[in-house]
Design goal:
Oligomer: single chain
Structural class: alpha+beta
Mean pLDDT: 91
Largest sheet: 5 strands, mixed
CATH architecture of the largest domain: 7 Propeller
CATH topology of the largest domain: Methylamine Dehydrogenase, Chain H
Strand content: over 45%
Number of helices: 5
CATH class of the largest domain: Mainly Beta
Radius of gyration: 32 Å
Shape: elongated
Low-confidence stretches: 1-18
Helix content: 10-25%
């Protein structure tokens, strides 16, 4: 559930401007169920996994929901386990889910593992208590924490060791985060009603600290600090592996129940339907308040997903695709988006490549491509559905549109392609010279060479035409570069584009 992510100054700036704005827009993609509770969510291997419980006359059933399409559609899994699933993470190539069940005064742990989020295997944590959260560190493996001071560790998520604190019925450890080496867990003492922090540098020996704050529900690590969240707008940060903590507030009149870290930003959610973010854990921005009680938050495929105690699933709103168009061989100087000029060297059909391969979706959605052409009668026809398409076009003017869809929103880029002959291209250069502020004595030699090139191209004398263009190049270099460097540069670029059309 918590990720350790490196961050640069550039990433921080992008995160604040980009993801921060994204957090202001949310939509409900799954509606509440009377008997469903969702408590956590994570992302990995292209899949979101949400966990919780459902209630019926037969008792409480553990529930897993998966989505591989940007959290728009969810599939219910059946792990065939009674009880409640409280926490889930993805690490080391697989998902690990933790939870618990009880029978009378007996408490049982639940650990499930899966490589694909579909097929689940039950593991034994060797602790006789519910497990509320699980996290992973590259050099420390998995750590799960829970009821009555329960702590379990595992290198692979399969074989677990009991590292629990001395049994304490009042000690509830709700969240765990790892900075790579240090493990920091948070919770509360139900008897004394204050927060607790439990830390370890090796996963074997654990130290407990009492804090004079409201109950803590979750913790995450990033930007060189642990940030813990809890009830009554409790927000704590520690830069010394959980030894000392400083407090801040967000102004939300409620409880923060879960926190994650992604791309330089901490994001916390809670009740009532709150979403807040911070770069440093001290200064917080409030993005949302709502009717929900949000117990889990995760980031994947370009968006945040949060889960609600009453079974709702929320995600940041869809961001439309960004169209990046390329037309080749578009002639430099003659082309300026959205108008592209292609020079046909033989004054006949020319092959034009239309590409939208550079297009992307900010949410990382799958994209579909639709190429449209406006016909002479004004009608619109679709002629291709691929990232790139090749067209044979005769001389003339054509109006196209590239429509890119992410399945929710479409983005269009309309553009014009004009196919001209080399002679017509030289004619454009001639007009540029004639309209320039050059003196008549400066224009005449250059116009003579350009008109000779134009006549040669008209009769198909390609080598002769290119020869006259080369002479024009030398004249521009020798006579115009000092006199009018901007004009000279434009003319050279235009002539070069004409020559390139013959390659």
């Amino acid at each position: 559930m918590k990720a350790l992510v490196g961050v640069t100054v550039v990433n921080l700036l992008f995160a604040v401007m980009g993801l921060g704005a994204q957090l202001d827009q949310w939509e409900v993609v799954s509606f509440p169920s009377r008997y469903l509770t969702l408590l956590d969510v994570t992302y990995g291997a292209g899949t979101f996994v949400a966990v919780g419980e459902s209630s019926s006359l037969n008792g409480v059933q553990a529930e897993v929901f998966i989505s591989s399409d940007n959290a728009a559609h969810w599939t219910r899994q059946s792990p065939d386990v009674r009880g409640t699933l409280f926490g889930v993470t993805y690490a080391a190539g697989g998902f690990v889910v933790v939870g618990g069940d009880s029978l009378g005064n007996d408490y049982f742990n639940i650990i499930l593992t899966s490589r694909d989020g579909t097929n689940w295997t039950r593991r034994n944590a060797n602790v006789a208590n519910h497990l509320f959260d699980v996290s992973y560190g590259s050099s420390s493996g998995f750590v799960a924490v829970g009821l009555r001071g329960a702590i379990a560790t595992s290198d692979d998520g399969v074989v677990w060791s009991d590292r629990s604190l001395p049994l304490d019925p009042a000690l509830l450890i709700h969240g765990i985060a790892i900075d790579g080496v240090n493990r920091v867990a948070v919770g509360h003492d139900a008897a004394l009603y204050h927060a607790i922090v439990v830390t370890s540098a090796d996963g074997i020996q654990w130290s407990r600290r009492n804090l004079a704050t409201s109950r803590l529900w979750d913790v995450s690590y990033g930007n060189g600090r642990f940030v813990a969240v809890g009830e009554n707008d409790t927000l704590l940060q520690s830069t010394d592996a959980g030894v000392t903590w400083s407090r801040s507030v967000s102004g939300v009149n409620g409880h923060h129940l879960a926190i994650t870290f992604h791309d330089g930003i901490f994001v916390a959610v809670g009740y009532p339907g709150s979403v807040i973010s911070s770069v440093d854990g001290a200064n917080w921005q409030v993005h949302r308040r709502g009717p929900e009680s949000l117990h889990g938050i995760a980031y994947g495929r370009g968006r945040y997903v949060a889960v609600d105690y009453d079974g709702r699933i929320l995600r940041t709103r869809n961001m439309p695709p960004v169209v990046v168009l390329e037309v080749s061989p578009a002639a430099e100087y003659f082309s300026l988006a959205p108008r592209y000029v292609v020079i046909s060297p033989n004054a006949e059909d020319v092959t034009v490549n239309l590409s939208g391969a550079g297009s992307y979706d900010p949410d990382a959605d799958f994209l579909s491509f639709h190429w449209l052409r406006r016909e002479a009668d004004g009608s619109i026809t679709e002629f291709a559905q691929s990232q790139e398409t090749l067209l044979g076009l005769p001389l003339g003017r054509y109006d196209f549109t590239l429509r890119v869809s992410d399945g929710i929103d479409d983005s269009d880029d309309s553009f014009e392609v004009r196919v001209i002959s080399a002679s017509q291209a030289v004619g454009i250069v001639i007009a540029l010279v004639e309209e320039s502020p050059l003196s008549t004595s400066e224009k005449q030699p250059l116009l003579k060479m350009l008109r000779s090139a134009q006549r040669a191209f008209d009769i198909g004398a390609i080598e002769s035409g290119l020869h006259h263009l080369a002479r024009a190049d030398k004249t521009i270099d020798a006579r115009l570069m000092i006199r009018d460097p901007d004009l000279a540069q434009s003319l050279l670029v235009a002539l070069n584009a004409i020559r390139n059309s013959f390659q």
